[in-house]
Design goal:
By secondary structure, this protein is an alpha+beta fold. It has helices at 2-21, 26-33, and strands spanning 82-86, 90-93, 101-107, 110-115, 123-128, 131-138, 141-148, 160-167, 172-179. Strands 1-9-8-6-7 form a 5-stranded antiparallel β-sheet, with no helix packed on it. It has a 4-stranded antiparallel β-sheet with strand order 2-3-4-5, with no helix packed on it. A hairpin with a 4-residue loop joins strand 8 and strand 9. The termini are far apart.
Length: 180
């Protein structure tokens, strides 16, 4: 009996709260505040309409997305060092110090890479956002190691390449560095 009373009381409180949250006179409220009913941000997250988190208009609420220094221009990588936005499959020309090109393909927030350092050999793998891949490349092939977070630079080989992935606006930014 007591359990039934508690369930009934709980249901009554929830129904009262639901009715108290809705207003049947949004037009009157809009007229008195000077804001149209359509511009009401009830239920929206702070800053969702471009307002500051405290609701002040005109101030941005989030920092802009990172932008790749070289945009989507793969030719900027021809010298062996660049920062490009990957949004789909790319073949990136390089300077030939270790390889003449690297293939990149976006897979969610991971970029898959493949290259051929010597005839009949290939190096490949995937690099996620916030991670670095160190590519050791020699005359007869090579290998790759990757790490994320604070250990990311520990994978840098004495000679080879580094690939670093960061979040970009519409894809993943990949920084390619040739270590000479």
């Amino acid at each position: 009996m007591r359990r039934g009373f508690l369930w009934g009381a709980t249901a009554l409180v929830l129904m009262t709260a639901a009715v108290g949250c809705s207003s049947s006179d949004d037009t009157a409220d809009a007229a008195s505040t000077g804001r149209g009913a359509a511009s009401s941000s009830a239920g929206a997250e702070p800053g969702a309409s471009g307002d500051a988190p405290d609701g002040r208009p005109g101030e941005p609420s989030a920092s802009p997305a990172a932008v790749a220094a070289d945009g989507t221009d793969v030719e900027a990588c021809r010298d062996g060092d660049c920062e490009i936005l990957v949004t789909g499959p790319l073949t990136v020309p390089l300077d030939g110090t270790y390889v003449t090109e690297i293939s990149l393909e976006l897979d969610g927030d991971t970029v898959d890479f493949t290259m051929e350092p010597a005839p009949g050999t290939s190096i490949g793998g995937g690099i996620g956002v916030g991670c670095v891949a160190g590519l050791t490349i020699g005359e007869h092939g090579g290998g790759s190691r990757s790490a994320c977070g604070d250990n990311a630079t520990s994978v840098a080989p004495p000679q080879g390449m580094l690939l670093r992935a960061t979040q970009g606006g519409d894809g993943v930014i990949v920084e390619i560095t040739t270590l000479r």
